[in-house]
């Protein structure tokens, strides 16, 4: 590695070859941090590293290691003089978590437990945790703020995010010398504007936008909208869709905020969304307008476990974190479509 990079604060990025992780690696380097990726490639592709090299014009250090492997992780902590950790690595398929809860609890909570122990042992103070708006369940009031009560999770996946937050909060309360921020993501979409990296779902996508772009590209017969009889203006579910590069930038701001904390123990939570609720049918219309591509979609029955509507109040992120979403939904969907076309051409 280029010795001139040694003066930059090193940030361990677990799951750094994944969708959000890889885009955050780009933002970190642009902001003057030195990311160190840890990924077992269980749900990501090594080709992402080539994409990062193309965008950044340089290699990024990457260890092919499982975050639950304490001995291997200890070796990384010993070798790299780490300044902080961004913890993305987790299983995230809601449906699978219902079928295989123990797999999710062991992996998602075990990896966090391992990381916190090693951070304490090696004197690494800063942690940004990848949480989710799933912790709010189906909220009684909208938009949700960070003070909105968490409701029982709809799935073991969602429960691992709520429990992960609790583990960090309790560690800080116990005066463990860690400064941590949980970012509650809303719905990340889009891709890097270069179309060199983006979302790489395996098999049938569980997220709406990759399914939508695959349908637009003719890889899927049609897109099914699950329900048009919800209590929303057009009957379809409402979500808060945020461009993945805006989400990546929020992690950089979280690290900067942690750097400013003078106490040895600190914990805070931020919603990371646009603050705008967009229905599934509105999203389809926006995609068609942004790309000029007509979508073949049908209305299907409601899907079990779907929240009717959720979107963020982002005042706290704007004021305390000094961050706001800058990219429009149209831009997000155009970037996602360019990425899909790039995948087709490979």
TrEMBL record:
Homodimer. It comes from Arsenicibacter rosenii. Signal peptide: none annotated. GO terms for biological process: galactose metabolic process. It catalyses: UDP-alpha-D-glucose = UDP-alpha-D-galactose. PANTHER family: UDP-GLUCOSE 4-EPIMERASE (PTHR43725:SF47). The keyword Isomerase applies. One of its GO terms (molecular function) is UDP-glucose 4-epimerase activity. Its EC number is 5.1.3.2. Residues 12-333 form the NAD(P)-binding domain. One of its GO terms (cellular component) is cytosol. Gene3D superfamilies: NAD(P)-binding Rossmann-like Domain, UDP-galactose 4-epimerase, domain 1. Pathway: Carbohydrate metabolism; galactose metabolism. InterPro entries: NAD(P)-bd_dom, NAD(P)-bd_dom_sf, UDP_G4E. Pfam families: GDP_Man_Dehyd (PF16363). This is UDP-glucose 4-epimerase. Its cofactor is NAD(+). Belongs to the NAD(P)-dependent epimerase/dehydratase family. Keywords: Carbohydrate metabolism, Isomerase, NAD.
